[in-house]
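Help!! Second protein's tokens look totally different from the first
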Amino acid sequence: MTVEEAERLAASGQAVAAAEVLAEAARGGDADAAMLLAVWLLRGAPLRRDLTAARVWLRRAVEIGHVDAALTEVALTANGSGASADWPSALAFLRTAAAHDPVAAAQLALVNAMALDRSGLPTRLPAPESLSAAPRIVRFPALLTPAECAHLAGVGAALLEPARVIDPRTGAWVAHPIRTSDGGSIGPTREDLVVRAINVRVAAISDTSVAQGEPLTVLRYRPGQEYRPHLDTIQGATNQRIVTVLLYLNQGFAGGGTHFPEVDLTVTPRGGDALLFANTRADGRSDPTSRHAGLPVIQGAKWLATRWIRASPVDPWTLA
């Protein structure tokens, strides 16, 4: 009843007392208490966010044997939440978890199949195909394997909700008829080693730091759904979206091409391909020729993942 007691205290406004109850139980061997305390510290409610402290309680939950805590620890170790990013340690944690958890074992198999160095950096990338010089539009054929595409779609499927856009007046994410797909953002706690390695691969093809990328967003377009012509830049942003990378996760549907009306170019999605395009000019201003659309899907379902890359590193924990 320890977790229930803590939740009642938190609901009544006694978050500190609730945390003390969880901490005492966690020290006594209660894995669920340790995990809940870590979650509160990661989420920033009902306690103030403290990633370093969260990692301490997450480690305690793992030591006791909490499976979900083990996978969360792997993700945070790799992406550097609450400590320096450490791919070798994250991989070691995943190997330990894989011995008893089929989900971890499946992730490890995918990572082992990747061409990576000891730091998790890709050692092999496909040759780029230039589709336009101005704006710069480049395709990277087969950047992802079918198994990697399926993994991203699977992670994203659990997060799907009606897609949103950034309101230029307030900076908040809002629903808008310009974008009618379903989407979900893979935040730091869900950035497993497969997702992390793919994000690093995207950084490599875009010649940017992985820290410049917003959390990977998985999108699903069903028949009739589309993303009308738009720019990916954010009006008035001090840290602008300079590059977009689209990862096409499947094929076999009708419609759904990526259309650039200013240069009369339509790219037909092929599962595993990546499409990179610049959103800004050399002076950092938004490039109106980068306006593009996700054309309506006619039949089937289109899955893709989007990585918006900023001019400078972003904090994924503070993005709305």
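Here's the second one for comparison:
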Amino acid sequence: MSSVGIGIVGLGGMGQLHARNVLEHGADVCAGADIVDSKRARFGEEFGARTYESYEGLLEDDAVDAVVVTTPNRFHEPIAVAALEAGLDVLVEKPLAHTLESARRIADAEAKSDGICMVGFHNRHAASTAMFDEYDDRGRFGELTHVEANYVRRRGVPGPGSWFTDPGLAGGGALLDIGVHAIDLALYTLGFPEVTEVSGITRTTFGTREEYADPDGFGDDWDAAAEPYDVDDSTSAFVRCADGSTISLEAAWATNREPCTDFVVRGTEAGASFEIGDNDLTILETGTGGCDHYADVDLSGDPSITGHLEQDKRFLEAVATGVEPQTNTIEEALTVQRVIDAIYRSSETGRAQQLADASDQEIQAQLD
């Protein structure tokens, strides 16, 4: 991978994390772009990379073979589309875009490009998921029937005034920020079956309160009166699939319950539980040997395996070899985006939503 040159657009914490992963895998961080002077200066000093104020300048750098996009959601589309039109490979952080329409345009651009686009759903590469995949491939769980997906913070609303709480920049709140991880992982676990119906409700309960208890100091400079926002801070949803499998979702930046990232998979022969992005997995079985009994098996994975590191390795391999990736594909990300869009529509209308959509079918035909 030493000949692969990576340019990173968005030089905050996520951009720096990807840059370190790129170096660990032996590729070259050759360029970075950000509108903030201090971020460019820090990034250039740490990684020895050329820096640009605009992504257009970075895309014109001949040393750049692929681009990692870690900007606010609204800017994913223009950067990813421009990179793909230039024939470059792209890794865009989750979600694919701030709206379904924007996500469709990125998918359309990839279908017409020589470049590939992967989407940053790193939790499917964590040790817990890798172990689950192995035992699922062996048939240990039988037919998978249901996933309970939780990504719940007791108090964890990003500070008002940040782009996370600006619907124009983020596109949504807790659902689009952290719920997207749980939805992707659930669909991935089930093998991305066809989704037929989605129902859900989103709530804005805490973000507009002048007195908001934030014991862990998750959000800086809390002032709801000065910086109101119109995004969701919790979501409950239910997803039906054509093969009969289902997903229940709880996602929240803030809610009056214990925090939870539990992920429970139910199968006809056995079940599994783990925390999203963790290294441990419990297989839940029963038996009749000797007497009827429960048989729970605890597995502890290699802690050096992290989702981000493994995901970036897969991306760099695709860039280096030119082989289409088999994971984190834009087709999968578009399905996730459609589910999120359906949850928001269901919440607005008070009715379950179907996912049949001619525009998506046209894009899928191009991708196929």
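Reply: Different proteins will give different token patterns, so don't panic. The mean pLDDT is 93.
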